[in-house]
Amino acid sequence: MTKQLVNTDYVIYDKENDKVARWFSDDDIIIFGDKSEAKQDARGNEIVIPCTDLPKHWQDELIKQINKH
What we know:
Layout: E1 10-14, E2 19-20, H1 35-41, E3 47-50, H2 56-68
Antiparallel strand pairs: 1-2, 1-3
């Protein structure tokens, strides 16, 4: 069964540079189940948004990522 994105999972997004926060170990996008935890990790001009609010190309990459695990 293919997993889908849900609006209760959050990512740290740098809109100005069109980048998402990633793990250094495997370059996967970091997914947070807790918005306040994500806000603690955000820095500079990064914002915390539901993964369903990401631009389409990032949503597509995230869907591939969650379905490979």
